[in-house]
Amino acid sequence: MEQRLSLITLGVADAARSSAFYEALGWSGQTPDGDVWFFQVGGLVVALWSRAKLAGDSAVTDGGGWGGVTLAYNTRTPEEVDAVLAEAEAAGGTIGRAGAATFWGGYSGVFLDPDGHPWEVAHNPGWTITDDGRTLLAD
User: Fold this and answer.
1) Above pLDDT 90, what percent of the chain?
2) SS3 of 6, please?
3) Any long-range contacts for 55-64 (C-beta under 8 Å, 24+ apart)?
4) What distance in Å separates the CA atoms of residue 135 and residue 67, rounded to the nearest whole number?
5) Where are the alpha helices (DSSP H) in the chain?
């Protein structure tokens, strides 16, 4: 198996509402049937689909709680962290943790999408964000 990730599917209560939230953040998506939405995010795809359907398709029991996954969006500067958090809040997200200096020498905050999926927005001074948006680990 190659070391890569192709798709992340978020289980949501209302796919249309969640799609509107991500579109308000400036993302552009598409839906083949009004049931699932797909967003091209760099070299991978983020999908929004019914939480119940996703649980069934993934062969898991949905306990209704947090699934133990946090998504992340890395920025080029600490100031961009605060700008992204403000954009997410204006789009209808909830700020879980305001932007602040971290113990590891960076700067980060967290927003939650309408279904409670956490997104860390972080600036890591040891990583590079390329012009095309790829995040590269330090050498």
Assistant:
1) 76
2) coil
3) 55/11, 62/11
4) 24
5) 15-24, 51-57, 78-90
